[in-house]
Write a structure and sequence with these properties.
With 385 residues, the protein is α/β, with parallel strands linked by helices. It has 12 helices and 14 strands. Bound molecules: S-adenosyl-L-homocysteine and iron/sulfur cluster.
Length: 385
């Protein structure tokens, strides 16, 4: 059965497959136009479909009311669908954070899920626009780029899954569209940030990740300056990223997590391939925008990376790079099967102060939604919530 599907799909590779279904989400306007013109339809119908999928957040072809009913029928009859992933489960934390189990439609050979997180920064609903009830003023969506992850950082729960597969362009964009839809976000009016810090290593799924970003900018209408991508330090990915146009390039965060190669190599195997100096050299190639800073994420592992000595070493390291840098400090979030300790009380603040004394700005990242396994490094498709 599996082999049949592969064969049939390749026989039909020039056009839409008549077996199985094909997703429209993930295609850009030019690709949608090509689909339409290949069927003898006006190209501008493609732009209408893009508008429906990405701006109006329509879920079914039959509901794209700007298209003639006959055309909707024709596309659906040929096996096309929008194919937006669904929010299958929602886990809610007391601070308003929501973790979603996202279920992908088009998964072959097996159905897969990944996670996304919604983190509102609220005002208790007091500033609702024109009487509208809203309990958030701005929000951040944390997006996954892969199912699982191959990088194997010792302190991260996602690592335990291994890499299951890359997400497609439509699956990455679709997570965002589904979450925007759930919260009735008005793009352009509401302040929504995206962080590509969910499951997976975005720079090991570079093409899909970056095409998804372009769609999110061009079709969904989000600003790349409100997006941050985090990498564990995949040097070829950082080098490609450096060559992206500023109009579509998110901000960059590097998961540094240690002040030297010795400790980093022990907790992040990727460091043995691309040590700190190689990562910094690649970051240097990025033409930063005015006032743009590179974020260095630093997970504080109790007794391993959270000492004042390490703060000074980190401060000196970052100063020597000469890069406009800031540090996000993240107290390690515990999880089953991961053998580290949370930092001792006071250690995080002492670390921040020691960095400040070295002239490096550092911010404490508050853990969001720890009780529902939504915080950094906890995304493992836990179904208890
Ligand atoms: N794979 C990318 C994107 C995921 S971001 C990357 O590693 O950068 C996830 C962030 O959470 C990274 O900065 C990572 O260092 C951090 N992290 C991983 N496990 C964690 C844990 N258990 N507690 C706190 N932070 C963690
Ligand atoms: Fe992968 Fe990032 Fe977790 Fe490392 S921290 S295993 S790169 S998701």
């Amino acid at each position: 059965m599996a082999d049949d599907r592969v064969q049939l799909a390749s026989l039909n590779s020039a056009g839409p497959s008549t077996v199985g279904q094909q997703s429209l989400i993930g295609l850009d306007a030019a690709e949608l136009e090509a689909v339409l013109s290949a069927r003898g339809e006006a190209r501008w119908r493609g732009a209408q479909i893009a508008e429906a999928i990405y701006r109006q957040r329509v879920k079914e072809i039959t509901e794209i009311t700007t298209l003639p009913a006959a055309l909707r029928q024709k596309l659906a009859g040929e096996g096309w669908k929008i194919g937006r992933p669904a929010i299958a489960r929602v886990f809610q934390a007391s601070d308003g954070t929501e973790r979603y189990l996202i279920e992908f439609e088009d998964t072959f050979p097996k159905a897969e899920t990944a996670e996304a997180v919604w983190m509102p920064e609220g005002d208790g609903g007091e500033s609702g626009d024109e009487g509208e009830e809203r309990d958030w003023r701005r929000a951040t969506i944390c997006v996954s780029s892969q199912v699982g992850c191959a990088v194997g950082c010792q302190f991260c729960l996602t690592a335990q899954l291994g890499l299951q597969r890359n997400l497609t362009v439509g699956e990455i964009v679709g997570q965002v569209v589904a979450v925007l839809d759930r919260h009735s976000v008005e793009v352009g009016r509401d302040r929504v940030n995206l962080v590509f810090m969910g499951m997976g290593e975005p720079f090991l799924n570079y093409d899909n990740f970056m095409k998804a970003v372009r769609l999110l900018v061009v079709e969904v209408g989000l600003s790349p300056q409100r997006m941050t991508v985090s990498t564990s330090g995949i040097v070829p990915g950082i080098e490609r990223f450096a060559a992206e146009a500023a109009e579509v390039r998110p901000k960059l965060a590097i998961s540094l997590n240690a002040p030297n190669d010795q400790i980093r190599g022990e907790i992040m195997p990727v460091n043995r391939k691309w040590p700190i100096a190689a990562v910094i050299e690649a970051v240097r190639k990025i033409p930063l925008r005015p006032r743009e800073r590179v974020t260095f994420e630093y997970v504080l592992l109790g007794g391993v990376t959270d000492g004042p000595q390490q703060a000074r070493e980190l401060g000196r390291l970052l100063r020597r790079t000469g890069l406009p840098a800031k540090v996000n400090l993240i107290a390690w979030n515990p999880g089953p099967g991961v053998e580290f300790k949370t930092p001792a009380p006071g250690a995080v603040e002492a670390f921040r102060a020691a960095l400040a004394a070295e002239g490096i700005a550092a911010y404490l990242r508050q853990p969001r939604g720890r009780e529902i396994y939504a915080a950094c490094g906890q995304l493992k498709r836990t179904v208890e919530g």
